[in-house]
Structure formats: C-alpha cells, structure tokens
Amino acid sequence: MDVSQRIEKTLESAVSKAGGTSCPPKLAECLKYAVFPGGARVRPRLSLAVAQACGDGTPKLADAAAASIELLHCASLVHDDLPCFDDADVRRGKPSLHKAFGEPLAVLTGDALIVLAFETLGRHAVHAPDRLAPLIGVVSQAVGGPSGICAGQAWECEPSVPLDEYHRAKTGSLFAAATVAGALAAGAEPSGWRRLGECLGEAFQVADDICDHVADPDVLGKPRNQDIANDRPNAVQRLGLEGAGQSLQALLDEAIESIPDCEGAQQLRTVIAIQSKPFMPKGFTRHAA
Amino acid sequence: MDVSQRIEKTLESAVSKAGGTSCPPKLAECLKYAVFPGGARVRPRLSLAVAQACGDGTPKLADAAAASIELLHCASLVHDDLPCFDDADVRRGKPSLHKAFGEPLAVLTGDALIVLAFETLGRHAVHAPDRLAPLIGVVSQAVGGPSGICAGQAWECEPSVPLDEYHRAKTGSLFAAATVAGALAAGAEPSGWRRLGECLGEAFQVADDICDHVADPDVLGKPRNQDIANDRPNAVQRLGLEGAGQSLQALLDEAIESIPDCEGAQQLRTVIAIQSKPFMPKGFTRHAA
Predict the structure, then answer these.
(1) Cα separation of A46 and A171, whole Å?
(2) Taking a C-beta distance cutoff of 8 angstroms, is the pair A279, A287 a contact?
(3) Which of A45, B53, B71, B230 is 20 to 30 A from A67 via CA?
(4) Would you give the DSSP letter of residue B92?
(5) Chain A: residue nearest B31 by CA?
(6) By the 8 A CB rule, do A148 and A106 touch?
C-alpha cells in the first residue's frame, strides 16, 4: 500500500467508527465532510515519510500517528472557518462546514475530530503500548496550550502579536509534531527530528502567505488576500514578495540539512524535495493542504 | 489529602501547565476561568470514589483520570454556552466565558481543554503505562462520536430526537466514563462499574430537569426553564414533577445496588448516598456541577 492509501484508509476507518450506527446522522455526515476529500495531506505524508526513514517498524502505529495529526488539522480548519474567526465561505474548494451544515454542527465536528485524534492513537497503541504516552504528549503539545494551534489562534485575540511565536504555534507546531511523532511511532529517538518539522512548517507558512497574494482563488480552494482582510501578520507584507521567496528557499534547504542520520535519510531528502515543489512560488498548482 | 484537594490540585497543575509562560495571556486566563471555581465536581468525585473503593493503588493516575473527566465537562459547558447553542449569559454564578472574553476565546478554550484532558492522562500514565490506552478509549468514547457528549449535543440538530439516546450521550456517557475510568485507573476490572455511572448520570439529568423547573436561579447559578426556552426534551415535561421525583429515586436505588463487590463497596454506598442528597427535589442547595 502506498503512503496515500495508508493515510486515507486509516482516516476512513477512524471517521467511520466515530460516525457509526448510534451517531446522529448529520454529525456523521459532517465528520466525513470535514476530512474527505482532503487537501494535499502534507502533514500526515511528512509523518509517514519520517517513520519510513526510521525503518517503519510499527506501520499501524505510524498510520495512527499520521491520521491523528491530519484529524487535528481538519478540526482546526473547521473551527478557524467559523464566523467568529475567518467566517470563511469556502474550504478545499467547497462550502466551509458551517456554511453547509450550520454553526452548531461545525463546533461539534471540530470537537469530535479532536477527540477522534486521541482515540485513534489509543486504539492503535496495542502495537507498541510504551510509545502511547510520548505520542499523546507530542500531539497534545502541538494543538493545545501553551504553544500549540489553540495558542497560536488565541494570539489573534491579543492587542499585540509576537510574530515568530504566533507562526510557530499556529502552523509550525503541528509540522514539528508530524516529524517527531513519525519517529516516535517507528521506535526511533525523536529529538533530532523536530527541526525538520519546524523548518517545513515555517516554509509552508511563508508559501501560504505568498499564495494568499498571488494565486488563483480557484486553484487555492479559498479566496485570496484573506490575511489582509483579517489583518493578520503575513511574510509578504513583512519581507516583500522576493524576500519571502528567498526565505522559503532557505527554510527548505535548512529542512533538508537537518535530517538526522538514519537508514532512509537519502530517500527522505528526495521525498521532501519532490513534495515541497508545489510550495514554491512558481508552481502554485497543488498547494491546498 | 482529601478528595476535593486531590481534584483541585490536579486541575490546577494541568491548567497552569497549559497556560504556562508562552501562552497568550487571555487564553491562559480563560482556561482558569472555565475550570475555577468549579461546581460540585460531581464527576471527578465519583471517579475518585470508585478508585478508592477499588483500593486506589495508583492514586496519581486516578487523580489524572478524574481531572481529565472534569476538564472535558468544563469544555462542554463552555461550548454549550456559545451563542449558536444555548447562548447562556451565566454559568456557575458568573458570566459565561464568551460573555466575559468573547466568542473566539470561548471556542479556543473549549478546544484547549479537550486537548488538556488527554494530555493530563498521558502525562500521568507513567504510573501505569499499560492502563493508558484503555483510559483513552473510555474517555474518548464518552465525549466524541458516535455516542459521547458531542453526539448527544448533535441530536439537537436533527429533526427528531431519540430521548434515551440523547440523554445517554449528552449526560450519561461522562458519568459512565467517570466510574469506569476510576476502576481502570486503580487497576480493577472495569466492566462491572459502567451501570453505576449510567444510573447516576441519568439521575443527575432528571434532577437537573427538576431543578430547571423549580429551583431559585441564584442557587442554580444559571437562569431557570432553559430547557423549555431551548425546546429541549425534559423529564418533568414527560413525567410530571412527581413522576420525575420517583424516577430519580429509583435511579439512585439502582445505582447503589449496581456497585460490584469490592474492598470499599460499603463505604462507596455511603459516599453516594451522601453526595446524591443535593440531587433530591427537596434540597436544591448544592446542585450546580
């Protein structure tokens, strides 16, 4: 099974369990709507790529870690799109969840997806029970307080925003969790893997900022210039378009260089180079994640 | 340390870690606001009472299980109070979180509390790592889909509501998780403990319905007749006030009878009899949970 199939299969199994027989039908429909069809699945692909580079000794747990990270990403998209945040009409090329199903179901779907992420980790930990607590630690740190996605989003409610902290929490944290969890799930020493995720997360954020300025909204799957409309910090505003492009390239180079010595390091370098192509300013054809 | 101190100390430790140094100050404040001061802490007290009845062999893990259940309860209150659900002005005798801090922080606080519940379990699992996966399973089942709190709330978005399923998911599930998790955390066989939680959860729901009709709003900590205002199913409407009182008594009797044979069974019966007094129709002096 290739990486995409592993990710989709694990997500399908998780979502269909959560939306099972006794589930209110609309909530079950919303859970599917929020997760399928996905974007580029950048984070779970990265997580599995790291697990593979580390030997992929416990593939089911690696699949669960990758899926839990994508479920948390989907939850954050559903809640970010709510009227009290971005009030986005469109997500991944279709109406945002609250536009399609209403605000109550959008709140509940996000909540249920957060729970499902942890449930999925717990369910697959039978393959290596001693790795569950560290995985829970890494994943929860990436999404909760004091410096996960919730914290990143909450900076927008403060009178002044520390830019680096904001981006690190809102985007970088889940990328860092993706690489660390991939290594952990495979039974490797995880500490050396954080920088790779951080660099790619920051690169992804810069690429997103560039996209927000230049890309075709139909390709993007959402309206452009959302950051300016929502008065959010943006790398292009800060560095100019050319400066942002240079920053993006430097981050991708640092990412590649940061990869720890391991069995599959060379292959991982190739995978990252290929997968980051759509990030780059000249080719915004496959950007939505 | 008595049960209340154990609960408050574990909650304080969890909330202060989540709201630590790098946390946006308002989110840190909101996390505290949502959890302290608590209501009667019915669910974590129940969970710890069961752990004690089972010998309380791993008290730190029992504390974590109890705290995780209360954190999830607090998260559900914050999200339930949002304008798209109850639009409640008051909770636990003070302004609801979104009234005090705005809707974006209320959504994020609920999300961060859900994450914190699982993080807390993971952090304390070092005391008995093999119990973490079953604890995650029990707790996530109680709050996510297909039949946890999110599912219970989502029934309100359906054209017709199966009453028993609705109450079981919205209230009963977390009580059942409280008893099962208490047993699990103490290393006891958990299956016999579910009925106790289910009965007490149902009793609590009926008591809440009675309160909603007759109690003084100042004592209640929230406005009365909320169910009627929100067109929600209610035991008093269904059974009349006297019928609801009888149903409550029967559920409490069944709860006491369901307690499995264990070291501390007799003491647990006494604890439950004492703690359920404020549930009863004549004494609504300490009801808010």
Answers:
(1) 14
(2) yes
(3) B71
(4) T
(5) A145
(6) no
Partner residue opposite A144 with nearest CB, options B107, B115, B141: B115
**What does each C-alpha distance from B82 to B98, B110, B153 come to in angstroms?**
7, 10, 12
Mean predicted confidence (pLDDT) in A220-243: 73
Distance in angstroms (rounded) separating the CA atoms of residues B41 and B28: 21
Tell whether B21 lies on the interface with A, counting CB pairs under 8 A: yes
Interface of A with B in 26-45 (CB under 8 A): 26-28, 31
Count the alpha carbons within 13 Å of A223 in the hemisphere toward its beta carbon: 14
User: Which stretches of chain B score pLDDT less than 50?
Assistant: 283-289
Note whether ipTM > 0.85 here.
Answer: yes
Place of tokens 């009627």: B228
Q: Please give the Cα distance from A173 to A167 (Å, whole number).
A: 9
How many Å apart are CA B169 and CA B152, to the nearest integer? 4
Interface contact B123, partner A, CB < 8 A: yes
- Check if A13 contacts B (Cβ < 8 Å): no
Q: What is the DSSP string of B189-228?
A: --GGGHHHHHHHHHHHHHHHHHHHHHS-HHHHTS-S-HHH
CB contact under 8 A, A146 and B79: no
pLDDT tier at A180 (50, 70, 90 boundaries)? Answer: very high
3-state secondary structure at position A287: coil
Residue A84 reports pLDDT greater than 80: yes
pLDDT in tens, B7-49: 999 999 999 999 999 999 999 999 999 999 999 999 999 999 9
Architecture of domain A3-279: Orthogonal Bundle (1.10)
Q: What is the pLDDT of residues A96-152, one digit of tens each?
A: 999 999 999 999 999 999 999 999 999 999 889 999 999 999 999 999 999 999 999
DSSP for A47-68, written as a single string: HHHHHHHTT-SSHHHHHHHHHH
